[in-house]
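The following block was generated as part of the benchmark described in Methods. Ligand: flavin mononucleotide.
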Amino acid sequence: MTSTIDFLLSRQSNGNLTEPAPNKAELEQILQSAMSVPDHAGLTPWRITIVEGDARQTLANAYVASVKASGADEAKLAKAERMPFRAPLLVIVSTAYQEHPKVPKIEQSIAAGCAVHAMQMAAVALGFNAMWRTGDLAFCDVVKQHLAIETENDIVGYLYIGTEAKTLPNKPRKSFSEVTRYL
Ligand SMILES: Cc1cc2nc3c(=O)[nH]c(=O)nc-3n(C[C@H](O)[C@H](O)[C@H](O)COP(=O)(O)O)c2cc1C
């Protein structure tokens, strides 16, 4: 059994995802893991949208509308429409910014990012894997409007979750020493 520290040291995304998705009980554990992240003043400044099965077409429609609005060609439209089908389950995390005297927006967005990471780790802990994606289709008001996310909030991540279709070799890690100093 992998120790907790080995689990943390070996975390690795995998975008090659297929069925099965987590079942309802597993999904609820994944979602609950987001409720244990560091959260200044307990604002819970994130919202979660689940996209599974046929709902992926609704997301695909939002992507197509966005790409159309940017004037892209047919090939880009077709690519955008396929994107949500890269995994059986997507969890979209958006911010829910609140005015607070001690918690600026950046902290709220970091907490929302922690929620994405916690859910990725929870998915792995349950035997699945996941890939955190953003890109133009996250930073886009057209997509937000389709998903009923207020334009003043941010889409922090599309977390694609599923079963690994292909196991990836362990990738080499950079050393912490490249980015660390003692004061
Ligand atoms: C906020 C954020 C957004 C990301 N967006 C994308 C993305 O749109 N497309 C992508 O291929 N990887 C994206 N990544 C990176 C992948 O999730 C992943 O971390 C990267 O491919 C490296 O793999 P690893 O997690 O195994 O180290 C993003 C990561 C973060 C933290």
